[in-house]
From TrEMBL, chain A:
<dbReference type="InterPro" id="IPR011006">
    <property type="entry name" value="CheY-like_superfamily"/>
</dbReference>
<dbReference type="Pfam" id="PF00072">
    <property type="entry name" value="Response_reg"/>
</dbReference>
<protein>
    <submittedName>
        <fullName>Response regulator</fullName>
    </submittedName>
</protein>
<keyword id="KW-0597">Phosphoprotein</keyword>
<feature type="domain" description="Response regulatory">
    <location>
        <begin position="3"/>
        <end position="125"/>
    </location>
</feature>
<dbReference type="InterPro" id="IPR001789">
    <property type="entry name" value="Sig_transdc_resp-reg_receiver"/>
</dbReference>
<dbReference type="GO" id="GO:0000160">
    <property type="term" value="P:phosphorelay signal transduction system"/>
</dbReference>
<feature type="modified residue" description="4-aspartylphosphate">
    <location>
        <position position="57"/>
    </location>
</feature>
<dbReference type="InterPro" id="IPR052048">
    <property type="entry name" value="ST_Response_Regulator"/>
</dbReference>
From TrEMBL, chain B:
<dbReference type="InterPro" id="IPR011006">
    <property type="entry name" value="CheY-like_superfamily"/>
</dbReference>
<dbReference type="InterPro" id="IPR003661">
    <property type="entry name" value="HisK_dim/P_dom"/>
</dbReference>
<dbReference type="Pfam" id="PF00512">
    <property type="entry name" value="HisKA"/>
</dbReference>
<dbReference type="InterPro" id="IPR000700">
    <property type="entry name" value="PAS-assoc_C"/>
</dbReference>
<feature type="domain" description="PAS">
    <location>
        <begin position="263"/>
        <end position="333"/>
    </location>
</feature>
<dbReference type="InterPro" id="IPR013655">
    <property type="entry name" value="PAS_fold_3"/>
</dbReference>
<feature type="domain" description="PAC">
    <location>
        <begin position="464"/>
        <end position="516"/>
    </location>
</feature>
<dbReference type="Pfam" id="PF13426">
    <property type="entry name" value="PAS_9"/>
</dbReference>
<protein>
    <recommendedName>
        <fullName>histidine kinase</fullName>
        <ecNumber>2.7.13.3</ecNumber>
    </recommendedName>
</protein>
Length: 134, 588
């Protein structure tokens, strides 16, 4: 199944994103991390049976979004990981940097909206995880 | 000439005593003072004649005991007598021979049978006189011969009709190089140079019987050509019709004349064809000569120009100064009158300068020789140059730049006022060397400027531009934009560098300020995008959540979150405002 991880140092953002993902039926239980290294620990012991969608903030203390991505590259589970960069502002430098990471499937400028969630579900790689009602 | 009163020495050769006495008697009648010497034989006579004697005449009887042949006797006697006249006394039987003796050199012959005192006296007298005349004639001929032979002028005698050489003198031999024998086998035509043969032939024919002179060219034996003047007279030469010709070698004279002519021509050309105007005048300006170049220089022909006084042509503002200069010639041989104006034919003013030489003492000139040169173009250029220099000076003064002029070869650096007004160096502070300038470069810039100069010289570019810092007199540095122009010699070596040092300190400071502003504004922009958007995004997310899902739990908690975020946003915006004010109020 598809597990959704929210990695953001902002408490309110985690709360809002979690509620939205639940309401949009992207996931029943979003897994939230205030610090990126906590998410690293989680993924290191995560099962390869699952796929993981990461809602990743860029600007965070201790380990920022880019450093976190470098860590994922070292993991055995990396094939099962998809990353959605979520930032309050995205500049040209960030976009250039992102080209180096094929894990990144998209950039989203905060806040994430219901519309973002619907588009997400329509992406070919995620479609299998969201069966149509009929 | 023998006077009758003089003592007359006579040798009488007579063996017959009677005849001798008779002769003595006859002579005694005519001559008061007479001194007879008698010889009876030829041998005796010979002895007397060989010794010193004073005989004026010899009376010779042909029948002598010691001589058989009369003719031999006469010949011997003639040779012995030298120039003493011999009178032969003979009998009738020998009359025929007596006549013949005349051709053998005997002065007279007398028949003994017809002898009388007056006849003897007369014969003696005539014989002596004739001998004297003969002697004089011989002497004269000898002198003439010497005149011919030893004349310093080459001379020759030609056959009047054939023009063969009959006689040549030493001077001719010396001049022409032919020996006497060679000459005597030649014809005078052999000397004639090919080109003028017909002309001489004609002159000769026209004057066949006359004296003539002409100048011709002759060939010498060595093939060289000489110019000669000849004077030729018809003469009788030993009974032959001839011409005597005197030659005067004028080759040297001709060459000298030609050299003189060439020199004259050259000087004439120098004066007449030169672009300089040459005039001869007196102190009052009256012209006595104007060279033809006047038409070139002034558009007035020399013949027209000479009609007026020279001062007439001079600009009225210049004429007094010209006159003053001329007066200096009273004490100086030569003076130079600097530029003054003369009016040309088209009423335009030409600038000329003149060198005047006082040749009043030279009788062939007798005046002041003025040599004038048209310097109008030069003056025009000079005026332009002065104008341009003035302009340059004004620009150099007006510009706020410091103008530098570096003489590379002599390592001399010159500055305009800028070095003082911009950098604060007084005249006493400045050393005019490249080192002094180099020392004032900022240490961090020195190496860069040095390698740049090297590159510039190698690249052979002329206009160069570089920025550096230059130390002021007070020790502070100013930013300088140096624009230089390199002047090169024909080998493209840099010999001079003209530069303008522009003080760009203010500009540099301004740029620095703008860059500071920029970076602070960038900070603000970043803050805006990253910091401002964080709470804003939260608020937007919360609002979206409440709107999309009105039945969501914990609505009051979400509203509280909105409130917190709004306050946070408010703080951030206040902070930005404060920072922005900082940037504008406190430029760094």
């Amino acid at each position: 199944m598809l597990k959704v991880l929210i990695i953001d140092d902002d408490d309110i953002v985690r709360l809002v994103q979690g509620k939205l993902l639940q309401n949009c039926k992207v996931t029943k239980e979003p897994i939230k991390f205030k610090r990126a290294f906590e998410a690293v620990e989680y993924l290191n012991s995560a099962s390869t049976e699952h796929h993981y969608l990461l809602m990743l903030d860029i600007n965070m203390p201790i380990m920022n979004g880019w450093e976190f991505l470098d860590e994922i590259e070292k993991m055995s589970i990396k094939e099962n990981v998809y990353v959605l960069m979520v930032s309050s502002s995205i500049d040209y430098n960030d976009k250039e940097k992102a080209k180096k990471y094929n894990k990144i499937i998209n950039f989203i400028e905060k806040p994430i909206t219901a519309k973002n969630c619907e588009q997400l579900k329509e992406l070919p790689i995620f479609k299998p995880f969201f069966p149509q009602p009929n | 000439m023998t006077e009758r009163g003089e003592v007359l020495n006579i040798l009488v050769i007579e063996d017959h005593i009677g005849d001798y006495i008779l002769i003595e008697d006859y002579l005694g009648e005519e001559h008061l003072q007479i001194n007879l010497t008698r010889a009876t034989t030829f041998q005796e006579a010979k002895g007397k004649l060989v010794n010193t004697h004073n005989y004026k005449v010899i009376l010779l009887d042909l029948s002598l005991p010691d001589v058989e042949n009369n003719e031999t006797l006469v010949k011997n006697m003639v040779s012995l007598s030298k120039n003493i006249p011999i009178i032969v006394l003979t009998g009738f039987s020998n009359k025929e021979f007596g006549v013949r003796t005349l051709s053998l050199g005997i002065s007279d012959y007398l028949l003994k049978d017809e002898l009388s005192a007056p006849q003897l006296a007369k014969s003696i007298y005539y014989s002596i006189e004739r001998k004297n005349i003969d002697f004089k004639l011989n002497e004269s001929e000898r002198k003439y011969k010497a005149l011919f032979d030893f004349s310093p002028y080459p001379m020759w005698v030609l056959d009047k009709h054939t023009l063969d050489f009959l006689k040549v003198n030493d001077a001719a031999i010396k001049l022409y190089g032919y020996s006497t024998n060679e000459f005597l086998c030649m014809n005078v035509r052999d000397l004639w140079v090919a080109g003028i043969r017909e002309e001489i032939q004609r002159t000769w024919k026209e004057n066949y019987h006359e004296k003539f002179n002409t100048s011709v060219k002759h060939l010498k034996k060595d093939g060289s050509i000489i110019h000669v003047e000849i004077l030729s007279n018809p003469i009788d030469f030993d009974g032959r019709e001839a011409r005597v010709t005197q030659i005067k070698d004028i080759t040297g004279q001709m060459e000298a004349e030609q050299a003189l002519k060439a020199s004259e021509k050259r000087f004439k050309a120098l004066v007449q064809d030169a672009s300089d105007l040459i005039m001869i005048m007196d102190f009052s300006g009256a012209l006595s000569y104007v060279s033809p170049s006047s038409s070139q220089l002034m558009g007035i022909s020399d013949s027209d120009m000479i009609k007026h006084n020279f001062f007439h042509y001079i600009h009225k503002n210049d004429v007094e100064s010209v006159k003053e200069y001329l007066l200096k010639l009273k004490d100086n041989k030569r003076i130079q009158i600097p530029s003054y104006r003369i009016k040309s034919s088209d009423n335009k003013w030409r600038y000329i300068e003149t060198i005047v030489t006082n040749l009043n003492d030279d009788p062939s000139i007798n005046g002041l020789v003025a040599n004038s040169r048209d310097i109008t173009e030069f003056i025009k250029q000079e005026k332009k140059l002065i104008h341009s220099l003035k302009r340059y000076d004004i620009v150099a003064k007006a510009t706020s730049d410091t103008i530098t002029d570096y003489d590379v070869v002599n390592d001399k650096m010159y500055y305009n006022e800028g070095i003082e007004s911009v950098f604060g160096y007084s005249k006493n502070d400045i050393e005019n060397t490249g080192v002094w300038w180099n020392e004032r470069l900022h240490p961090e810039d020195r190496e860069r400027v040095r390698s740049f100069s090297e590159d510039v010289r190698n690249a052979k570019s002329r206009n160069v531009q570089i920025e550096y810092r230059f130390r002021c007199a007070d020790g502070s540095y100013k930013y300088v934009l140096d624009r230089s122009y390199l002047i090169t010699d024909e080998k493209t070596n840099t010999i001079r560098i003209i530069g303008a040092m522009q003080d760009i300190t203010e500009i540099q400071n301004y740029i620095q300020t703008i860059e500071d502003h920029n970076s602070r504004l960038k900070d603000i922009a970043w803050t805006q995008s990253h910091v401002v958007r964080a709470p804003l995004a939260r608020i937007m997310g919360l609002v979206d959540l409440i709107q999309s899902y009105p039945d969501v739990d914990e609505q009051s908690q979400l509203l509280e979150h909105i409130n917190t975020s709004a306050k946070e946003l408010d703080d951030i915006i206040r902070n930005i405002t404060r920072k922005t004010e900082d940037v504008t109020l406190n430029p760094r």
